[in-house]
Queue: 2 jobs
Job 1
Amino acid sequence: MNILPEQFQSKKTKTMRIMDALEAQNVKPRPWYVFWLQNYAIWAVWLLSIVFGAVSLSVLWYAVDVGWYALFEATHETWLEFMVETVPYLWIPVFGLLLIVAVWDIRQTKRGYKYPLWLILSSSLLGSVALALWAVWFGVGNIVDRELGRIMPFYPSQERIEMRLWQQPVNGRLIGEVEEQNGELFVADVDGTSWLLDTSAVIGPDKDILVAGKSVRLLGIVGDDGVFVVCGAMPDIKDPLTDPEEFQRFRDVVRDRLQQPQLEAASNTPCVLPPPRR
Amino acid sequence: MADTQTQSDESLVGQALADRQAFAFLVERYEAPLGRYFYRLGVGDPEDRQDLLQDTFIKAYRNLASFDTSLKFSSWLYRIAHNETVSWFRKRSIRPEGHAIADADEVLRFVEGLELGPAEQFKITEDQTAVTKALTELPERYRTVLILRFMEHKEYEEISDILTIPVATVGTLIHRGKAALKKILIAQNYEHTT
């Protein structure tokens, strides 16, 4: 049925041909909510990429943070060497990719084309960094890193890296949980072996953390009798009760002891540690 | 319906969403300018232009509810038309034909926009085909902005909305496009005179 306005019916105008095609193909406007949903979906993708970008940054931040109070002197020659081995690089391309998604996404919004690339890029970057600061404050990087380490066997979480670096009794490093039996202290290491501890050489504040139930990292020597002579103790990074300042304090105490072995002269047990070996 | 002819595009869009026949007034308003735009972009065959017109209006009608009222309706429609033309050329893997300029007045206006010297301007105005030829030799991104600016007489803001690029980029493209076109025209003129 042709119900075109009168003026278009007089001859087969181009307008009429187009209107006929609309009629013949029964073209109808898509409902407004399709576009509304489309628009919000685009913004949702942007928000998600910013949030996940912030999470990536917070994990990187966490790794660097852990690096500051790790006793790198015991495992590596320099701090830089330590960081090169322990920073989870995977998160850098992940962050880059999420940033590209965020920028591409903004360009798909109704007015996204009006803004220059540098503005979209820098605002997305700033958004992620600001959110990452907030995430770091709430320990998101720590949680994500730890949980991913638990779920994915090949993910190099900081806990896993620490275990790899510190589960080396022959090189004088041990990691595990302190247990007490009949007044004697043991450490059940991550391989399940129980080590009897000789703590007579520990005279500083680190002696206080050698109590049952504490997760610790120990520096020492395996004696001929198989006893682990402890020269220094620090909390393990997975210890939820230890804050960064406290980690730093223990780190400094043990580092000073490494650099001044004569301090141990008070003890009957020689505490001469082997040089760093991985 | 008599009032409909004086109504704004935006008001007609509102009516067309409820009544398809109101869309006829928008089609009537824009079929000629869009036809010319297709021609200038290098679609030579009238049947091809009619097909492009039809596809453009069908797409516009289907997406009418997405029309952003902060834009001019003409910019929104030209954007659809432009995208349709680009995909039309891409599908056929052909280059635009040199039909960009319709008459002598248009050549004059266009060449004036290029800010050439009086002698060069006179020579080039004499030879319409030279301008057309030079335009087809330009890279697509320059050709499009020059056509929109100097033939469709669109403002920078409108070109930005049509091509979905920042206004500053429009300015840069026009500046570079003019320089590139002048270079081609001067070289052509030099070839003719030697």
Job 2
Amino acid sequence: MPQDITIYLTDREGELHTLIAPTDMQMNLMEICKAYELPVEGTCGGMAMCASCQCYVESDHPLPERSDDEEAMLSEAFYVEENSRLGCQIQMTDAIDGLKIRLAPSE
Amino acid sequence: MIKTDILIIGAGPTGLFTVFEAGLLQLKCHLIDSLPMPGGQCAEIYPKKPIYDIPSHPEILAGDLVKNLEQQIAPFQPGYTLGESAVSIEKTAENEFIVTTDKGTQHQAPVVAIAGGLGTFEPRKPPLKRLDFFEDKGVSYIIKEPEMYRDKKVVIAGGGDSALDWTIFLENVAASVTLIHRRNEFRGALDSVEKVQHLKNEGRIQLITPAEVTTLEGESKLTSISVNKEGEILKIDCDHFIPLFGLTPKLGPIANWGLEIEKNAIKVDNTLDYQTNIPGIYAIGDVNTYPGKLKLILCGFHEATLMCQSAFKKIHPEKRNVLKYTTVSGVSGFDGSLKQAAKSTIKTIE
């Protein structure tokens, strides 16, 4: 049985949320946020074609590199920092158990 | 005044399919959409992406889905008000609705179907100080009249197709064109990327990458912008700044129409006909919400079908009606066309 992992998320008001995420449901971080009814729009549905799920990674977990699509979208997004990622491009895997993230401001 | 039976706000897949279901019931439709073309998100955000959960289409590109729908509804001759967004609604003495767009176009119908998806597409605005102040004083997000830029100094920001296309176009019109993008790579048609490269090589445009616009300057109108290029601040004199960062949907004025809104969506009665709290106004597709709602194109099609049956009863309370099957009855278009199953051949064998 795959174990659930834990994600620590700071929302736009600075409040901390502990999210329990399954690793066997092909879910990404944007979807986990939506499942917890956090204010993440996910307008494009997860195609890296909007930046509504932008977040800042605040722990040093090994994340897969940004794809060309994600890189292109982030280059047109606002409030982008070095540690910016699109939540929809981060899949729930054992390797990111304990990941700390902060939601970027909404546009 | 445009008059119709069902006024559909939003020409995405759900809105388009409504025309078909209404047409089968001999109801005429007119569509309003803020985008210049039908298709909604499918056309604007992901026309080249495949969809795998449309029943009987193992795979279909979003753009093709829209094309097919347009073809399917063509016999019912829908009217279109494109490139305009519905801003206000009022009720007439005869219990009909009048919907007015931002450009003042008025539409009247006994039934309104809001199929607005995630809302009206609006330009994404970069978070720059005084950006709002400079709107129409040098800052614009869409290019309506290219002549406005003749012999002017123009700065464009963005890294997608529209930034590239307008750079190429305005190079012929403006006194100077500067294109600014946060990195060296552009996401656009190869042809456009190559053209911009060529213009840069010939010194006909200025390309500043990787760089970001940081401030807008000017007293009563825009006179210059400052750009941060890898830590170095450059000041560029300009008459116009055009940030082209694509579009994002916002629910917009519909939120103020007195409809019950929950989580940025319109509450409807899903046990019956997807009607809102205002009788005669329905909400279908991604724009609505009810217990168990799924934002799927296929659910929008279903909602459109049920909604049309209810609209028929509202428009023709005196008429009895039963569900008909297109295989049996065919499709009689308002254009006089008739599609129907071939008659079976009956021949005697002697």
